[in-house]
Amino acid sequence: MNGASTVSSSLDAVDYDPIEHLNTIFSHPSTLQSINSTATALQTYQDDLSTSISDLVATQAYSDDSSLQRMQSAKADLAQLFRKIELVRTRAIETEQTITSMTADIKKLDGTKRNLTLSMTALKRLQMLTTAYEQLRGLAKSRQYRECASLLQAVLQLMRHFNSYRSIDQIATLSRNVAELQRELLEQVCEDFEIAFAKGEVASKKGVLAEACLVMDALGENARARLVTWYVNTQLREYRQVFRGNDEAGSLDNIGRRYSWFRRMLKTYEDEHAGIFPLQWRVNEVLANSFCEGTRDDFKGILERSMRRPDGAKIDVNLLLSCLQETMDFEHSLEKRFANDPRASTDTLSSVEEKPQTFDRSISEAFEPYLSLWVESQDKQLATMIPKYRNQPLLELDEEFSPQAVIPSSIELFHFYKITLAQCAKLSTGERLLDLSRTLAKYLDEYAQQVLLHFLQSPGGPSLQNIILVLNTADYWHVNTQQLEDNIKKRVDSEFASKVDLSSQSDAFMGVASAAVLALVHKVELACDAPWREMRNTNWSKMESVGDQSSEQAAICSSFL
């Protein structure tokens, strides 16, 4: 019993440990005799527990608050809950349908309200447009141009709101009336300008004309361009008549009169007309540009006729260059003049963003096809220089020789090339400059062959001084030829740069330098030939005395002193 009691109390423990329990029961070998009784006690305890559990389960199953009854009750509650949820969903659908029915009427009312608002706004704008149109007609008749300009902008802005309503007869009629009023205003302003300028009333009507320009701004770019074009043509009419209808006035000899005439006209604009036109129109620049375009076309015709003269004579190159230089100076003055003019901001309603006007080559472009005459004149001038250099001595009688000196003609030729290149680059950086580079290359070859090599091949052989001068000059031009090529490539247009090549001329001067070195070697060989022959013929074995210097050495040294 004690063993069973011990087993029962131990098995009920929360922190039951079977190993510890067994060690407690069988703590000594002598206790092993009670194994059977202990096993019987455990089996009996297990059977009792099984019986108790079965009784408790049966009691629980058939009691009033049993799990089965609770489960059945929970199912019934759940079914009732589902019925309530379905009822709520049904009522929600009914409520939604009711609300949708109610809001449909509200939406309809909202749409009606929105349409009514749009209609009222359109009617109000139409009323404003009609009123503004009538006011504009009255202001236009009384020539109140400042008020016209602001009201015209409002009319045009209101008219844009009715672009989609032009299918309505009344709107279409009003649109035509507004367009007709715009045309009337345009013609009226142009007529006012024409009358004022024709009658010499510009000064007295300056204020009205300035306000009329505001109307042209409101009418748009086409109206503004028409007025400016009329003004430019009016101002240039006399110029075109004088210089195109008179052979003497329109000749190249009188080119300066053209530019003087325009300067006077520009001063007239600044003194009398600048206050009429808005600054952002840049009428003075448009005037200058139109003058340049017309003058360029005139020069093209004059130059073309000059090349087709019955007597076959060509244009005087000096006159051509003089006219071209005067033209370039005039272009530069225009560029400088308008570069300092303030420009209107491009964020105003009446201004248009444009690239700044440039006057570079705006007239002188006409001369470029004829610069070949100038290149030909340089060719002819160089053709006369080469024979002169060939026939003149390398050093003048009063000049002292220096081992580092070069032939004076080479320096003269270098300066000629430098000045010619700079002058051509001012006139043209295109094909004419490429032509000039080829001309310069041709005469570099001739200078190397006909001048430098000529002195090396002179009868009787060149003197030592002349050989040294030729060698120094060839080296001088070898270096400068490379620099000349680089300089031309920097100045000429990029499309022609690859065609500039003076490498063969540079090689030619290197070849002259090599020939000069060979001539020096030959000179040394000739000077030493007699002393060397004497040295070979001397019987050195019979020499009885030796001095500081032999006669052969003295002869060799004297040859190079």
Automatic annotation (TrEMBL):
Gene Ontology BP annotations: retrograde transport, endosome to Golgi
Species for this entry: Cudoniella acicularis
Transmembrane segments: none
Pfam families hit by this protein: Vps53_N
Any Gene Ontology CC annotation: GARP complex
Lineage: Eukaryota, Fungi, Dikarya, Ascomycota, Pezizomycotina
Residues annotated as domain Vps53 N-terminal: 15-389
Highest taxon above the source species: Eukaryota
The protein's name in its UniProt record: Vps53 N-terminal domain-containing protein
